[in-house]
Design a protein that fits this description.
Elements lengths: L2 E4 L3 H10 L2 E7 L4 H20 L5 E7 L4 H6 L7 E10 L2 E11 L4 H14 L1
Parallel strand pairs: 1-3, 2-3
Antiparallel strand pairs: 2-4, 4-5
Helix pairs in contact: 2-4
């Protein structure tokens, strides 16, 4: 099921990673002007993905880097907005979470929806 979540606690975020095939994270800051333009597009594209693929095991998460410094550090976020796609993958040593995609900066609505559609269809 496609999940939308704002500023999860660390334990909640880790539970999402364990329970979803993919987690798409919008790292943002409240003081960031490009984030103020990008974050609503991210949320809209996530809502559209949830509407079109309600059973896809994908979570969309928004993380304020000032409130969740540990998550920003964990994923090496040095500028905002940064979007990271994390996927669970099976390997010889079991299941692990790996960064599948990363983009920095603002992306247009149509391209964002295409990326989310490809992710949900593959899930």
């Amino acid at each position: 099921m496609v999940t939308l979540l704002d500023d999860p606690a660390l334990a909640e975020f880790d539970a999402l990673l364990a329970g979803q095939r993919a987690v798409v994270v919008d790292f943002y800051a409240t003081w960031c002007q490009p984030c103020k333009q990008y974050s609503p597009r991210f949320a809209q594209a996530a809502r559209e993905a949830r509407r079109r693929w309600p059973d896809a095991p994908v979570a969309f998460v928004k993380v304020d880097i000032d409130r969740s410094r540990e998550l920003a550090r964990r994923y090496g976020v040095q500028s905002v907005p940064t979007t990271v796609v994390l996927e669970r993958r099976k390997g010889l040593l079991g299941v692990k979470v790996a960064q599948a995609q990363r983009w920095t900066g603002s992306i247009g609505q149509a391209e964002l929806q295409q990326r989310f559609a490809a992710l949900c269809e593959a899930a």
